[in-house]
Amino acid sequence: RACNNESRGALIVLEGLDRCGKTSQSSRLVSYLEGLGHSAELWRFPDRTTRVGQMISAYLLNQSELDDRTIHLLFSANRWEKRSLMETKLKAGTTLIVDRYSYSGVAFSSAKGVDLEWCKAPEIGLLAPDLVLYLDMPPENAAERGGYGNERYERLEFQKKVAQCYQILRDPSWKMVDACQPIEDVQKQLQKIVLDNVLTCRKSKPLSLLWS
Ligand code: NYM
What we know:
Blueprint: E1 11-15, H1 22-35, E2 40-44, H2 51-60, H3 68-91, E3 95-99, H4 102-111, H5 116-120, E4 131-136, H6 139-144, H7 156-169, E5 175-178, H8 183-200
Parallel strand pairs: 1-3, 1-4, 2-3, 4-5
The structure holds 3'-deoxy-3'-aminothymidine monophosphate.
The site of 3'-deoxy-3'-aminothymidine monophosphate has 10 residues, from helix 4.
């Protein structure tokens, strides 16, 4: 019933620090929506499967060095290369649950000291999410969760800066969810917010563009 002529899919983004639970919550949300008969897909950025994504992956694994602005533009290009498919899917009625998006792009690069407005510029014109869910967790707690792997950025001091940058980007429409709660409780809260959003994403509510 979700895929009738009246409805389009919702663009729903999960954001937060590394290790806050975004990835497992995102895949649970997709299962939840599918269980209710909605068409839904799990997307993530960076999408490491493309050629740009492979360059990003090598950088994150410390197998290559790139200037801060260069890697920023690659992350952005990785979103641009998926933009038209994203629009097609949404218009066809599929809801996209997206694990990280432009806000990660701006927060992580500006945490390195790159100017915030400069960071936003290449994101202008990408599809704006219908809903941003921020999984809120103090950097110290995130760091304790199974520890960090070996990827770039997985250091407590840097994550504290990223948290500050997210605070600057945050706007009143973001839904903040306390990610320190048990995983089932976080999921229940997310499910309610997401379902409400999916049900209101009619075609009469057009897609908008970043940054609005
Ligand atoms: N990251 C992610 C960025 O620096 N810029 C971006 O635009 C995006 C989407 O990549 N530490 C960072 C955040 C993460 C890392 O993400 C890889 P993940 O979710 O661990 O694959």
